[in-house]
What does this fold into?
Amino acid sequence: MPPHGDEVYRPKPGQRGKDVMWLGTPETMVAAMLKAARVGPADLVVDLGAGDGRIAIAAARDFGARAVGIEYEPPMADLARRNAVRAGVADRVRIVTGDIFREDFSQASVVTMYLLPELNLQLRPQLLDMKPGTRIVSYAWTMAEWEPDELIRAHPTDPYPQDAYAWIVPAKAAGRWSIAEVGGSFRATLELEQRFQKIGGTIAVDDARARQPILGAYLVGTDLGFTFVDRDGGVKALRLALDGDRAGGTSRLGEYVVRVTAQRGR
Ligand SMILES: C[S@@+](CC[C@H](N)C(=O)[O-])C[C@H]1O[C@@H](n2cnc3c(N)ncnc32)[C@H](O)[C@@H]1O
It folds into this structure.
């Protein structure tokens, strides 16, 4: 017998939901969003406000991920479960009937959402506290001053073309770091300032009093990179993988690459 229930429940676009009404993300955008987030079999995708389950289902069916959809409205959550069965991915898609502001989704490696600007802002601190490297994708709405790392353009022929936005949760990098080359002579202190994924700061090499600005700094998840002018005038590139208050990576001067370690000071 086919899964039943559809005969008694057909959601209408625009119908009320707890904090936001139901409208489905266009299927072309669902695929583009999951692609932008580089979803793969190792991922746990959580869709906040899952509606009919289309994002969670596509993540499992087309990208091989495990997925959870959190949906407040019980009949809608039931429909999403039936859709997961129909799509043959019920073993990898879990639909939770619950409130996105109460359910724990901290284990997600990818979070998707189609909510409202103010809900995105309400969730923003929680999203920024997720594991660095977690990908966030929001259809239609931004995160205000937390600028997206990627813009996913709507197709111009969509009936209501709306873009989507993708972010990578940045590690918390601000503070004073001591850096040392392993087996080398180079030591430096780095002062980093951070606003979301934007990084700036200064570095002082050896005991030099003079601090110089770091150049071309970027922070992608835990991956921090920048350049600066070394003692002899060469441009040195530092690349560090941040891990809490510790970091390891390399310094490169032309072809000359040396391992470095770093520690954030107290
Ligand atoms: C705009 S729809 C998006 C549906 C789906 N994510 C998609 O992109 O196709 C938002 C969904 O969030 C649900 N919703 C509203 N407030 C919620 C809350 N606090 N917790 C969980 N779901 C909620 C609504 O019932 C609706 O199904």
